[in-house]
């Protein structure tokens, strides 16, 4: 491969990893600093095994089938290091932390650091959000000059980058590492569909994703290991050995 092709390949990988509107943290210690902007977009959703769909409330077929909805909240998040308005999407636990920070500090006045605590594949992964620095007038002018993302439009899947589902459970800077090939997504989805929703949430949370298709290629082996562990929890106990009559 010529130097020109090597250079082009290097740049394509760089932009693939840095692109994307959603903040995504995928490894232990990954962090991003930015400012929360505008109003949150909250919705109750159901996981279908492939994507999140919005709960319709009364008459919802998923609720009728016994599937409880979960909360997903999207917020605009300006990242000064990238000079870009991104989207941070999270669930109940982190959002409740944000409500406390909003009451104490005011989200519009501070930059906040979001950090992942937990290795890729860990079921105990959590995310911290802490005030980093106050926003000065120069940065405020910079932030105000950037257009907010249309959160409702993105959550509905009308935008290509949203893919019809919230692509990040806890968030992470940029688009993250290369994902597994499309033809290897279906086997994972098929096995996950056979598990309880709580196990699906464990699987997604462990890898910091909201869709199976967003699984990093580097995490594929760990994904199958975790899947086998989750499946083992629901395997029927071995049949007792037939009793042998010692006097027969």
Key structural traits:
2 domains; alpha+beta; 8 helices; single chain; about 250 residues
In a few lines, what is going on in this structure?
The protein is 32% helix and 22% strand. It has 248 residues and is an alpha+beta fold. The longest helix is centred in the N-terminal third of the chain and has 16 residues.
Account of the protein in words:
The structure is a single chain. The protein folds into 2 domains: 21-155; 182-233, no CATH class. Strands 1, 2, 3, 4, 5 and 6 form a 6-stranded antiparallel beta sheet that branches. 32% of the residues lie in helices and 22% in strands. It is of the alpha+beta class and 248 residues long. It is elongated, with a radius of gyration of 21 Å. It is built from 8 helices and 6 strands, in the order H-E-E-H-E-E-H-E-E-H-H-H-H-H.
Order of helices and strands: HEEHEEHEEHHHHH
What is the averaged pLDDT score?
80
Judged by helices, strands and strand pairing, the structural class is alpha+beta
The proportion of residues in beta strands is 15-25%
**Number of continuous helical runs:** 8
What's the end-to-end separation, in Å?
76 Å
Largest sheet: 6 strands, antiparallel
Principal-axis shape equals elongated
Whole-number count of domains = 2
Rg computed from alpha carbons, rounded to a whole number of angstroms: 21 Å
Give the helix proportion (percent range): 25-40%
Write the layout of secondary structure elements.
Layout: H1 3-18, E1 31-47, E2 52-54, H2 61-64, E3 70-79, E4 84-90, H3 92-104, E5 110-117, E6 126-134, H4 137-144, H5 151-155, H6 185-193, H7 197-206, H8 220-233
Antiparallel strand pairs: 1-2, 1-3, 1-5, 3-4, 5-6
């Amino acid at each position: 491969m010529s130097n020109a092709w090597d250079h082009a390949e290097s740049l394509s990988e760089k932009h693939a990893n840095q692109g994307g509107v959603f903040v995504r943290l995928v490894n232990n210690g990954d962090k991003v600093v930015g400012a929360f902007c505008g109003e949150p977009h909250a919705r109750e959703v159901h996981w279908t095994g492939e994507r999140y769909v919005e709960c319709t409330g009364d008459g919802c077929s998923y609720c009728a089938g016994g599937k409880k909805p979960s909360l997903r909240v999207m917020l605009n998040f300006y990242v000064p290091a990238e000079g870009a308005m991104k989207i941070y999407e999270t669930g109940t636990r982190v959002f409740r932390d944000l409500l406390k920070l909003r009451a104490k500090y005011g989200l519009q006045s501070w930059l906040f650091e979001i950090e992942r605590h937990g290795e890729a594949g860990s079921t105990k992964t959590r995310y911290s959000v802490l005030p980093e620095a106050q926003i000065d007038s120069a940065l405020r002018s910079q932030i105000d000059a950037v257009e907010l993302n249309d959160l409702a439009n993105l959550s509905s899947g009308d935008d290509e980058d949203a893919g019809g589902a919230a692509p990040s459970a806890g968030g992470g800077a940029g688009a993250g590492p290369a994902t597994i090939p499309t033809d290897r997504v279906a086997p994972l989805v098929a096995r996950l569909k056979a598990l309880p929703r709580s196990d699906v949430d464990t699987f997604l949370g462990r890898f910091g994703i909201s869709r199976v298709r967003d699984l990093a290629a580097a995490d594929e082996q760990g994904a199958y290991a975790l899947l086998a562990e989750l499946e083992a929890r629901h395997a029927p106990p071995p049949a007792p050995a037939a009793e042998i009559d010692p006097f027969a």
